[in-house]
Amino acid sequence: MSLLRNTDFMDVKPFVKGKVRDMFDLGDKILIVVTDRISAFDCVFPDLIPYKGQVLNSISAFWFDFTKDVIKNHVITTDVSKYPAPYNQYHEQLSGRSMLVKKVEIVPVECIVRGYIEGSGLKDYRKTGKVCGITLPKGLTQAAKLPEPIFTPSTKAEQGHDINVTYDELMTIIDKDLAKKLKDASIGLYKKVSEYALTKGLILADTKFEFGLLDGELVVADEMFTPDSSRFWDASDYEPGRAQKSFDKQYLREYLETLDWDKTPPAPSLPLDVIENTSKKYKQAYSILTGKEIV
């Protein structure tokens, strides 16, 4: 197994270097390379997580195919041999952790669906009884299941931080028809995958999507139902009123909450056991959901 911190091994440079992904502009296409970097609280950590890049890329590829009856996506191929030159020569480095996609016009909205109350949604509920303006039943405890999945979008400020908005506010920011399409697609995707996840013994507590426009048509883009973008819980251990046994980045967040760290850069180094356990949870999520193993 080889770890990948960056894409400096290539003669070309990414036009976008995100916290985890490096993206290369190929005209009407984009090559997305998923590294083994990990971030939390908007900070990238100095340590790499074994297999993380392969898990994120492979699980997204699985879900893009699984949900194509709900909405189209931007994927072209994950086969490195089908990439244009010079990218097709980097088979060893890119295999399993990259994806060639159609370039889309990203809609500047983070589409979040919550089927259970946790995280920032729980904090808002405890303060106001609402999440993104949606009034919820009284007396909900941590990790409680909601009567119906709710759509709780957020938008990007100029500084890049997410700002929670109500659905009514969203319809003043973007076209009303587009807002409805985002909501319907997000809820539809969540319902399909949450039902499937339950058959595998996992609860999909919440998730987030990005969408784009391709020739005027809405498509889902970026990543889907990964341990970075979703909360997956062990259904057999589920018990409202406490934190749940998870197969996602929550394990790392909970460890970080025990540190005397103010959640600003530079991020601290991670102990070996935290690195190994984080890697294990990512691999477990992939194998449970897809029935395959990361090689």
Q: What's the number of structural domains?
A: 2
Oligomer: single chain
Let me know the largest β-sheet: 8 strands, antiparallel
SSE pattern: EEEEEHEHEEEHEEEEEHHEEEHH
List keywords for this structure.
295 residues, alpha+beta, Phosphorylase Kinase, domain 1, D-amino Acid Aminotransferase, Chain A, domain 1, eight-stranded antiparallel β-sheet, 7 helices, 25% strand, globular
Walk me through what this model shows.
- By secondary structure, this protein is α+β, with helices and mostly antiparallel strands.
- The protein has 2 domains: about 90 residues, Phosphorylase Kinase, domain 1, CATH 3.30.200.20; about 150 residues, ATP-grasp fold, B domain (D-amino Acid Aminotransferase, Chain A, domain 1).
- It contains 7 helices and 17 strands.
- Strands 8, 9, 12, 13, 14, 15, 16 and 17 form an 8-stranded antiparallel beta sheet that branches. It has a 5-stranded antiparallel beta sheet with strand order 1-2-3-7-6.
- Helix 1 runs parallel beside helix 7 and helix 4 packs across helix 5.
- The chain is globular.
- The model has no long low-confidence stretch (mean pLDDT about 95).
